[in-house]
Structure formats: structure tokens, C-alpha cells
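@channel sequence for tomorrow's demo:
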Amino acid sequence: MRQPVALLGTSEKGFLTLRLSVEKAGGHSSMPEPETAIAILNQALEKIRQHPFRADLTPSNDFIAHIGPELPFL
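C-alpha cells (generated this afternoon):
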């Protein structure tokens, strides 16, 4: 190999922070509304959980395609 090479894995350990809020008129625990704020929030969290980010190896594939021809066979 003629040149030194480094791969910076910037997305292999990602995270996401969300701030969710629900505004709903208050009530009394003895007569709760059919749909409470916590139920709405729970539905939102469940939708997020059901649609995770997809795994993507495109940067790695591009790296391999670029560097592969430069590497010795073994």
C-alpha cells in the first residue's frame, strides 16, 4: 500500500434525544377522559419504537470499493 489509510466510524454508535410533550385539558382521576395525555404520549413512543432507523453500510461499502484495489491480495 502506498498511502496510509484511516476510517473514521462516525455513525457506528449514534444516539438520539427527543423531547415529547402533550397538551391536554386536565381532569380528575375518578373520571378520566377517554384519551389521556399519557395515552397520547404512549402512542407516540410506540410509533417511534415500531419504526427504528435502518442499518446502512453505504459508507463502509464506498470505503471498501475505494481502498480495495490498493490492497495486496493477501
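heads up for whoever presents: The CA atoms of residues 5 and 67 lie 8 Å apart.
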